[in-house]
Amino acid sequence: MIVIIGSINMDLVLEVPRMPLPGETLAGGRFHTAHGGKGANQAVACARLSRAPAQTAMIGCVGDDAFGAALRESLTNDGVDIRHLQQVPDTASGIAAITVDAQGQNSILLAAGANAELHPRHIDQAEQLLSRASIVVLQLEVPLATISHAIERAHALGKTVVLNPAPAAPLPSALLSKVDYLIPNEIEAGMLLGTSLDGGDMQAVQAAAIALQAQGCRNVLITLGSRGVYAALGETCAHHAATVVDAVDSTAAGDTFIGGFVTALSEGQTPQAAIAFGQNAAAYSVARRGAQTSIPYRRQIA
Questions:
Q1: Which SUPFAM superfamilies match (predicted)?
Q2: DSSP state, 225?
Q3: Catalytic: which of 65, 78, 81, 255?
Q4: Which residues are annotated as a binding site for K(+)?
Q5: β-strand 236-240 against 229-233: which pairing, if any?
Q6: What is the CATH number of the domain that holds 259?
């Protein structure tokens, strides 16, 4: 079983010809709402890409509003186990305001809402679920104290821990040493190291991956968008080129990659094969619009 601990949001998406400048009012195009949140996106990706969707479970929080009800129903429809998805009274569900430009690149603003109410006690209440998991997947859109506690518990239970450090935040080496796979993008990797990697050459990316390993992570996968993934797996480093597609919307592409990667790992595939599976899923997603609406089913990338 794969257990995802993280955020659940309603995405408010606006298409724009380009990103606005500070203080500028810019006429946008199509607007729509979509189910999102990095945690929920990754849970949906795991469920859709798995041979057994019921083997995916989600730990998180939604509000007691209309968005929360819709988000719960959507996860259930995808076969995600939501028995440990808390409904927080008198609280709004998390939202993400997303602008997508004509090149398919996005900019995201978050309001945590109920996501901020996921506490360490909720992790303790799900101890039986964690004990059944093979892989535990986390991000940083819920309180860091909760993520730290969850990593500690998953590591103590001998589970494979996958951390997507987004949005980037300082992380102590003692915590990183309990992470089996750290999966940042270029910007997040640079922020973790106090430098800039955005658009950097592959030597700089390799150096960053090795530096993150030196902080305690066993394996580091730096996602590079259309340039693929750079993987430092133990002592083996390699660049995995991406499948070339016409990108329409990159929203949730990283989440789709992570979902495909951990799904393949859970099925016993090698990390290299799991990277390829995740890349195929991500390539499918960027050619379609939306967050969860763009995440493929296994049959679609078979």
A1: Ribokinase-like
A2: G
A3: 255
A4: 249, 251, 285, 288, 290, 294
A5: antiparallel
A6: 3.40.1190.20
Residue linked to tokens 């990593």: 151
272: burial class by Cβ within 10 Å (0-12, 13-18, 19+)? middle
Residue linked to tokens 């986390």: 138
Is 66 contained in some domain? yes
Tally the domains of the chain: 1
Q: Where are the alpha helices (DSSP H) in the chain?
A: 38-49, 66-77, 120-125, 127-132, 144-156, 173-176, 186-193, 202-214, 253-266, 271-286, 298-301
255 counts as catalytic: yes
Has residue 25 been placed in a domain? no
Tokens of 183: 């999966």
* pLDDT, position 42: 97
The binding site for ATP consists of 185, 223-228, 254-255
